[in-house]
Design a protein that fits this description.
By secondary structure, the chain is of the alpha+beta class. It contains 10 helices and 11 strands. It has helices spanning 23-42, 61-67, 69-74, 100-118, 130-141, 155-161, 179-186, 190-196, 201-214, 261-281, and strands at 7-11, 14-18, 48-56, 79-85, 88-97, 122-125, 145-149, 170-175, 219-226, 239-245, 250-256.
């Protein structure tokens, strides 16, 4: 797959490999030369490594780590690792065995224990993202969805439409950044804005109701807030409000998000998708 050479040399008791940086040249060398050589040199039989990724939301990384602390220490095969990403905590279980089936059998009881301890915080596994889960819930019910966003500037809509086939449920989104646009495009009463302020549960609920009506959708997600770094409309940075309107009810949550502007926006986008999931299923909302 190319002409770049790879080098192997022994330095003391260690072997050093220098491989090309181009993946199409490097990967075949790793698969056909490096790994077989290391297995032969170590006397180890050929084995497979299998990972299972459990996706959680609703608790901090430290809390998830606390709930699984003894497993993290005592479970050697599979091993347990944690990854915080965009407001979610992923728990990765990795097993090594002679066959894939054997590795999965090693993972199964540990996965069961992790799920038992974390409960409803686990919402998906492996490649099932919150966007895909949300769209699946909508399609199962024959419902449509739209968005009304201020501080997140269309990020919720972007996450939903990143999933292939999202057009089966997603109808559109409105980015209404200032007060006049919220009133003109979403029908948020100017009196509600004047009384409660732009960053308020009342305004978020009105945005969701307006989006549901004007986009003709069953479910609407609305976000308003102060993403920072400065106060917005007298509201402290990191104060974000998410509203979800379903055919049954409209639910609203005020969130306090840490970090800089982009982290606040990213975490709020993830939270908005999860609040929509919970509103649709009727589950109890996390913190």
């Amino acid at each position: 797959k190319g002409t770049a050479p790879g080098l192997r040399m022994q330095v003391g008791k260690a072997w050093v490999f220098a491989l090309p940086g181009v993946p199409q040249e490097m990967l075949p060398m790793v698969d056909h030369d490096v790994i077989p050589f290391l297995q032969s040199a170590s006397g180890e039989q050929r084995s497979v490594v299998v990972s299972r990724l459990l996706r959680t939301w609703g608790e901090s990384e430290s809390k998830v780590g606390e709930l699984l602390a003894d497993l993290y220490v005592t479970s050697l095969n599979p091993t347990i690792a944690f990854l915080a990403s965009a407001g979610e905590i992923k728990v990765r279980l990795t097993a090594k065995a002679a066959t894939e089936a054997e590795a999965r059998r090693l993972i199964e009881p540990v996965e069961g224990e992790v799920r038992a301890r974390l409960g409803s915080r686990v919402f998906a596994a492996d490649d099932d993202t919150i966007e895909a889960i949300l769209l699946g819930l909508l399609l199962d019910r024959g419902w449509t969805i739209g968005t009304a966003e201020s501080a997140t500037g269309g990020m919720v809509a972007a996450r939903i439409t990143s999933v292939p086939g999202s057009s089966a449920a997603f109808r559109g989104g409105v980015v209404a950044y200032d007060a006049a646009t919220k009133t003109r495009l979403l029908g948020v009463p100017a009196s509600v804005i004047a009384e409660h302020g732009l960053v308020s549960e009342e305004v978020a609920a009105a945005m969701a109701e307006g989006a549901a009506e004007r986009l003709a959708v069953d479910v609407a997600i609305a976000v308003t807030g102060s993403a920072g770094p400065d106060e917005h409309d007298g509201t402290e940075p990191g104060t974000m409000v998410v509203a979800v309107r379903t055919p049954q009810a409209t639910s609203v949550r005020t969130l306090r998000m840490p970090g800089d502007r982009e982290r606040v926006r990213t975490y709020t986008t993830t939270a908005a998708l999860h609040h929509a999931r919970l509103a649709i299923t009727g589950a109890v909302e996390g913190p």
